């Protein structure tokens, strides 16, 4: 009986300390390709948007995004402009012109006859 009485007046157990809230693990931020290139001090450019006029598909535009190292690369290659946009614009215009000229060369080459024939005086035909 003494044991029962002792259990009744027994001091309560001290409260357990609350667990410390766990700090969320720091998640590594995934760098975008542009951020990664910039971090590595590398030139980077990307066409972020290409739009075509629905009524006239010959017309449209490209929206470009680049980092500062791309502009440095262009300036070192001789492109000039008052602003980064002017430098990139000069490069893009030249790029488009180069592509168009290459396309003209290909069309011209394909339109030429590949095999030429020449009629000889003896009635035969020479092919080259």
Overview of the structural elements:
With 128 residues, this protein is an alpha+beta fold. The chain has a domain of 81 residues. The protein contains four helices and four strands. A two-stranded antiparallel sheet has the order 1-2. Strands 3-4 form a two-stranded antiparallel sheet. A hairpin with a 7-residue loop joins strand 1 and strand 2. The longest helix is centred in the C-terminal third of the chain and has 28 residues. It is elongated and about 135 Å long. The protein starts with a helix and ends with a strand. The mean pLDDT is 82.
Furnish the topology, listing elements before pairings.
Blueprint: H1 2-8, H2 33-39, E1 45-52, E2 60-66, H3 68-76, H4 84-111, E3 117-119, E4 125-127
Antiparallel strand pairs: 1-2, 3-4
Keywords:
single chain; two-stranded antiparallel ribbon; 128 residues; alpha+beta
| Oligomeric state of shown chains | single chain
Shape from CA axes?
elongated
Query: What is the overall pLDDT average?
Result: 82
Topology order in helix (H) and strand (E) letters: HHEEHHEE
Helix % is 25-40%
> How big is the Rg?
37 Å
SSE-based structural type: alpha+beta
| Biggest pleated-sheet summary | 2 strands, antiparallel
Number of strands: 4
In DSSP terms (H or I, runs of 4 or more residues), the helix count works out at 4
The fraction of residues assigned to DSSP E strands is: 15-25%
């Amino acid at each position: 009986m003494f044991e029962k009485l002792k259990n009744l007046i027994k001091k309560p157990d001290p409260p357990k300390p609350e667990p410390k809230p766990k700090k969320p693990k720091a998640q590594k931020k995934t760098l975008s390709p542009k951020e990664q290139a910039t971090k590595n001090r590398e030139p980077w450019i990307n066409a972020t948007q290409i739009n075509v006029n629905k009524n006239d598909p010959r017309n449209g535009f490209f929206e470009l995004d680049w980092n500062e190292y791309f502009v440095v690369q262009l300036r070192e290659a001789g492109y000039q402009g008052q602003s980064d946009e002017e430098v990139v614009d000069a490069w893009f215009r030249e790029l488009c012109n180069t592509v168009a000229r290459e396309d003209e060369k290909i069309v011209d080459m394909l339109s030429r006859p590949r095999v030429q024939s020449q009629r000889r005086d003896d009635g035969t035909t020479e092919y080259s």
